[in-house]
Amino acid sequence: MQNVAVSVRGWQFHRDRYRGPSFSDTARTLEENERLSLEALQRLQFTMFREFAEHCFENSPYYHNLWKSRGVDPRDVRQASDVSLLPIVPKQDLRSRTEEFLTQKIHRGMTAVHTSGTTGSPLTVYFSREDIGRRYAFLDRCRRWAGVRVGDRRASFTGRNIIPQRQCGPPFWRYNAPGKQFLLSSYHLLAQNVPAYVEALAKFQPDIIDGYPSAIHIMADHILRAGSARPIHPRAILVSAETLLPHQRETMEAAFCAKVHNQYASSEGAPFVSECGLGRLHVHLDSGLVEVLDSNGNPTPPGQIGEIVVTSFTTRVLPLLRYAIGDAAIPSDGASPCPCGLPFPTVTAIVGRVDDFLYTPDRGLVGRLDTVFKGTPNSVVEAQIVQTSPDTIVVRIVPDRPRYRPEHARKIVQELRSKVGQFVAIEVEEVSVIPRSANGKMRPVVNLCLNVLPSAFQYGSKSDWAPSTVQTHHTSPAVTE
């Protein structure tokens, strides 16, 4: 009966997302745009930006009052460089003044999307039917670039609460028949449950595996360690909503014999960034504007980490225009086009949330910490690095008991020390499970003291993770340095 209920809801989702003229018209336009030159796409993007800015100014009290108070009018934006005249919108404004952003009254024809945000302070945003169709046309483009399409059999690791949290035994999944979608809970991936997940996935044999990379990685890691009674070979693995780490990609591709395709967007409605067949991240210019800025609000030089500020053309009800979304990226030099033939520009990497960085007295802002675990001999199932105070970092690890040795923890501390410097204490805790946030995500790096970050990195909200969400079992401190 629950599968029937999931399927009824799935049919409603499918109808709203894919059956309307907004989806089909946009999908055709997007294919046509892929045949344009980069220069033509940039002109199209600027035209769309001007129209979207005028829509915000005329219909959103927040943007109208903000720009009036700064003496700015969208007509002042006459060329691409003039975009910087418009002020950056901090995330806390969208959270605390949501009603002022709205361009029209909320009604039943709209779709409400709930984001987890900081624990205890969720955010609800709204999309029109037209914008929902447009956004799913962009998502369909991401799938098309990966060689799959709407209607293929999907196994999705979801943050939705499809299974009671108290449930201890399988099944940890439900089936959405209209969407040909096997929904698997991300909340029940404990070591003792993973074999049942693998068996169910092997029986379903998906064309696509999608969802959180941390959840899919647990499955892939188990398959490489213990095997699967039947090979699971999807045509593509599509991941989003979390930072994809290099070791996760390597493990998933080895276990499933399929290419991993990374994608960036957001529940609030950010523009799309996704990988082509060659694995390079392309910015969908026709979905919006993605700026990567330094601490002074200027474009970040290629190869350096900067904060992402987004303008999304598919957010006409609750518009995002120069919105500091709280994520960070590394821009590319853009000197040469991607060999894949797509005209869209690339970014080198999406490196996570700005509060996924540590900050230490002698090294400053520290990111890209996945290499800390590379020297560990396949003995750590999952790990999380948490800055608990300005001078303390805790490394939580889920050890693979038959393989794990105390010297592996010392190796991790040594590698982390080389990244963060000498003026912070590093502690290691062995745990049986790393807690997920309210929407099922696993954050590999968490900074619980955002006040130590540079002011430019404090636009956004605090971490999705908070101590009250931790449910640690059999915790024992393994190493303290």
Topology:
Blueprint: H1 2-18, H2 21-33, H3 38-59, H4 61-69, H5 91-96, H6 98-101, E1 111-118, E2 121-127, H7 129-145, E3 154-158, E4 173-176, E5 181-185, H8 194-204, E6 208-211, H9 213-226, E7 236-239, H10 246-256, E8 260-264, E9 273-275, E10 281-283, E11 288-293, E12 306-312, E13 320-331, E14 346-353, E15 358-360, E16 364-366, E17 380-389, E18 392-399, H11 406-420, E19 425-430, E20 445-447, E21 476-480
Parallel strand pairs: 3-5, 3-6, 6-7, 7-8, 17-20, 18-19
Antiparallel strand pairs: 1-2, 4-5, 8-9, 9-10, 10-14, 11-12, 12-13, 13-14, 15-16, 17-18, 19-21
Helix pairs in contact: 2-7, 3-4, 8-9, 9-10
Overview of this structure, please?
This protein has 11 helices and 21 strands. The protein has a 12-stranded mixed beta sheet with strand order 4-5-3-6-7-8-9-10-14-13-12-11, with helices on both faces. The protein has a 5-stranded mixed beta sheet with strand order 20-17-18-19-21. The chain is globular and about 65 Å long. The N and C termini lie far apart (53 Å). Strand 9 and strand 10 (281-283) form a beta hairpin. Helices cover 29% and strands 25% of the residues. The longest helix is centred in the N-terminal third of the chain and has 22 residues, at 38-59. The protein is α/β, with parallel strands linked by helices and 481 residues long.
